[in-house]
Backbone:
């Protein structure tokens, strides 16, 4: 099965974030080098830049959400790639109102399966599902557009239940 352009873009974002963390070099030259082949498609290139900037701009808030959901883990024990994928997923949930949460979570799971450990997909799914539920319950999930507005409402037990962590992944 062919990888979608959006997935390839997310994979490039992961590469940018990984290179930035390991090298501690400025982000702009790293983005310039890794995202160059996305430039012909303006939408992909702009999405990649926006996702990188959202992660880096809100990294403190994002990491607090992660830490709260992995209380039984020391945060430095989380695989570096898993942490970056979680950061990307949370940034999409919080700052990209036009991307359905299900798409964000599924993409994060698949990227984790390819770029990290055998158990990463399940781990990423569990953490992102828990954060999605928290955002729904607190009313801080803001999704707009056709088919997305129901994600902005707190979860109601009388509606369709949210996707549960670890099932069929």
Residues:
């Amino acid at each position: 099965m062919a990888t979608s352009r959006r997935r390839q873009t997310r994979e490039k974002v992961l590469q940018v974030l990984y290179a930035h963390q390991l090298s501690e070099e400025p982000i702009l030259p790293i983005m310039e080098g890794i995202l160059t082949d996305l430039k012909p498609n303006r939408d992909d290139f702009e999405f990649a830049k926006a996702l990188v900037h959202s992660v880096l701009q809100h990294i403190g808030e994002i990491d607090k959400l992660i830490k709260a959901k992995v209380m039984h883990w020391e945060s430095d024990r989380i695989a570096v790639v898993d942490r970056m994928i979680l950061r990307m997923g949370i940034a999409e949930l919080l700052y990209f109102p036009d991307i359905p949460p299900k798409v964000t979570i599924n993409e994060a799971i698949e990227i984790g399966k390819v770029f990290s450990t055998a158990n990463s997909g399940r781990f990423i799914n569990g953490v992102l599902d828990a954060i999605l539920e928290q955002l729904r319950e607190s009313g801080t999930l803001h999704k707009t557009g056709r088919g997305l507005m129901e994600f902005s409402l707190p979860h109601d037990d009388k509606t369709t239940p949210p996707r549960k962590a670890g099932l069929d992944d």
Notes: The first helix runs from residue 5 to 23. The mean pLDDT is 85. The radius of gyration is 16 Å. The chain has one domain: 5-152.
